[in-house]
């Protein structure tokens, strides 16, 4: 399994992802420049967090037109795996690879904190090995993470088990905030209908190395690797 991390102008979590995949998970991982037209044989494409093109229009709205996104869209349409984290999630919604949109946080503030999420299903690649009763502590850092979609789309997401994660309380702390940004249905991540494209706002790559004091993110990558490499 060869992973590729797309780097856009303004990406600032690309190296975090490369380190998490290559050092933390022991997998081959390379960087792909946004002007490239070649995915270099990568099987799994990752779009990292950051502020691509400065987020001067809408988050992800300009990156959606980067040359490499033509290749990413084709890769996804052929059934290839793609996952966007934070700004990467925003890019995937702008590109039409994922349903819905990410709006300004309900409190109109940038949120940088550890939050808790729970898998909403175990029928998606990143969640298949996860415990649906466990609250996973994963960092967030975003100003536009409020998931929004119309009622029909939300119903399809629920009926088709496309909701990947929901914001949750820490089961050990009843005072933990359940919904940190106002997302509808507490949604923290979704998949496409074909279930090969995934997006999530929290940063699992920041919870892989034990030196960071939290390894809950490893379970998400382990779930991907266990089933993809099987």
Automatic annotation (TrEMBL):
InterPro entries from the UniProt entry: Class_I_gatase-like, PRibForGlyAmidine_synth_PurQ
Keywords: ATP-binding, Cytoplasm, Glutamine amidotransferase, Hydrolase, Ligase, Nucleotide-binding, Purine biosynthesis
Gene Ontology MF term list: ATP binding; glutaminase activity; phosphoribosylformylglycinamidine synthase activity
Active site: 86, 203, 205
GO CC terms: cytoplasm
EC number from the UniProt entry: 6.3.5.3, 3.5.1.2
Cell location: Cytoplasm
Metabolic or biological pathway, per its Swiss-Prot or TrEMBL entry: Purine metabolism; IMP biosynthesis via de novo pathway; 5-amino-1-(5-phospho-D-ribosyl)imidazole from N(2)-formyl-N(1)-(5-phospho-D-ribosyl)glycinamide: step 1/2
Catalyzed reactions: L-glutamine + H2O = L-glutamate + NH4(+); N(2)-formyl-N(1)-(5-phospho-beta-D-ribosyl)glycinamide + L-glutamine + ATP + H2O = 2-formamido-N(1)-(5-O-phospho-beta-D-ribosyl)acetamidine + L-glutamate + ADP + phosphate + H(+)
Domain of life, per lineage: Bacteria
Main localization (coarse): cytoplasm
SUPFAM superfamilies registered for this protein in UniProt: Class I glutamine amidotransferase-like
Subunit structure, as described in the record: Part of the FGAM synthase complex composed of 1 PurL, 1 PurQ and 2 PurS subunits.
Matches recorded under NCBIfam families: FGAM_synth_I, PRK03619.1
Protein name from the UniProt record: Phosphoribosylformylglycinamidine synthase subunit PurQ
Organism annotation: Pontibacter actiniarum
């Amino acid at each position: 399994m060869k992973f590729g991390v797309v780097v856009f102008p303004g990406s600032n979590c690309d190296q975090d992802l490369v380190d998490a995949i290559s050092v933390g998970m022991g997998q081959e991982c390379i960087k792909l420049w946004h002007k490239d037209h070649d995915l270099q044989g990568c099987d799994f494409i990752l779009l990292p967090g950051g502020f691509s093109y400065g987020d001067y229009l809408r988050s992800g709205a300009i990156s959606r037109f980067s040359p490499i996104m033509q290749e990413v869209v084709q890769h996804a349409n052929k059934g290839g795996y793609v996952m966007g984290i934070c700004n990467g999630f925003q890019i995937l919604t702008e590109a039409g690879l994922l349903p819905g949109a990410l709006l300004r946080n309900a409190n109109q503030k940038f949120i940088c904190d550890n939050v808790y999420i729970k898998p909403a299903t175990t029928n998606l690649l990143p969640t298949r090995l996860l415990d649906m009763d466990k609250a996973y502590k994963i960092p967030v850092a975003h100003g536009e993470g409020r998931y929004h979609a119309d009622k029909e789309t939300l119903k399809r997401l629920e009926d088709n088990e496309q909701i990947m994660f929901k914001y949750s309380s820490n089961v050990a702390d009843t005072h933990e905030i359940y919904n940190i940004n106002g997302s509808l249905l507490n949604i923290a991540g979704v998949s496409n209908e074909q279930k090969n494209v995934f997006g999530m706002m929290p940063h699992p790559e920041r919870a892989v190395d034990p030196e960071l004091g939290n390894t809950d993110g490893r379970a998400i990558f382990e779930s991907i690797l266990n089933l993809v490499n099987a």
